[in-house]
Design goal:
- The protein is an alpha/beta fold.
- Helix 6 links the parallel strand 7 and strand 8.
- The longest helix has 23 residues.
- The two termini are about 35 Å apart.
Length: about 270
């Protein structure tokens, strides 16, 4: 990425996290630009990261190698159609907008190289994970540029089929909210069992953090880790059996299926 020039269309939270990640990786401020219609947003991103900002999208992409579309899905069609005359064939467009397919972007942008990504909110802490899909027009160098961009805020994983992004959305895009819900529920249950709420919250949060670290650093899968901490006839086994008796796995499968279905549904609605 040392010579890659990157232009961000939209300078909100996700764009700011990517810019911060790139700066932390050593990319010079002169290689990063951003545009945004909000003067306050532009001033904030300049103050935080020292990059040049613009109100005009066409101006910000001049000379860029990578153009990152970091706008709301509802605004993508208008942004793409306005951007089309200013793009050159050697610029790769990287979209982080949920629910906008490559087919829709090709319709609005023409035969531009496109990489569609699905990051998640832990990217704000550079602990994210992203699924990436590239159209046939994307060169190997451009694939690497897109991967380096998303790797600046976490793990970047390539997908063979664009449709798999609906599953990525269900698993990791929406995934943080599932863990937050479990944290809420465990905290509330701890309080009902007699713990002060603050103590229950601290116990739950540190347990979640520790378990995640164990799962990431272990050389065995989550199922084996669970078995290792589940003593026969012990307290953990009692809780696990209760989860399973009440259909925990089936509920998770159904919930993720609903998210994936909604992702596909949104793509159809927003791509018109």
């Amino acid at each position: 990425m040392s010579k890659t020039r990157i232009a961000f269309i939209g300078a909100g939270n996700m764009a700011a996290s990517l810019i911060g990640g790139l700066r932390a990786k050593g990319l010079d401020t002169a290689q990063i630009r951003a545009s945004d219609p909000g003067a306050e947003t532009r001033a904030k991103i300049t103050a935080e990261h020292g990059i040049e900002t613009f109100a005009d999208n066409g101006q910000v992409i001049d000379g860029a190698d990578v153009v990152v579309l970091a706008v709301k899905p509802q605004a993508m069609k208008a942004v793409c159609e306005a951007l089309r005359p200013s793009l050159t064939p050697n610029q790769v467009v990287v979209s982080i907008a949920a629910g906008i397919t490559c087919a829709s972007m090709t319709q609005w942008l023409g035969s531009q190289p496109i990489v569609r990504c699905m990051p998640n909110t832990p990217a704000l802490l550079r602990q994210g994970v992203s699924g990436l899909y590239a159209t046939a027009q994307v060169s190997q160098q451009q694939r690497q540029q897109a991967e380096d961009l998303l790797s600046a805020v976490g793990l970047a994983l390539w997908l063979d089929e664009e449709q798999q992004l609906d599953a990525v959305t269900a698993v990791s895009g929406s995934g943080p909210a599932y863990f937050f819900l479990l944290i809420e529920a465990m905290t509330a249950a701890g309080e009902k069992l007699g713990l002060p709420r603050e103590t229950a919250a601290q116990l739950t949060l540190q347990t979640a953090l520790g378990a995640a670290h164990m799962a990431v650093s272990s050389d065995v899968d989550a199922a084996e880790l669970r078995r290792r901490v589940t003593s026969p006839a012990g307290t953990t086994e009692a809780a696990i059996k209760s989860f399973q008796a009440n259909g925990f796995e089936a509920l998770v499968e159904k919930a993720l299926g609903a998210a994936a279905h909604r992702s596909a549904e949104m793509a159809e609605q927003l791509g018109k």
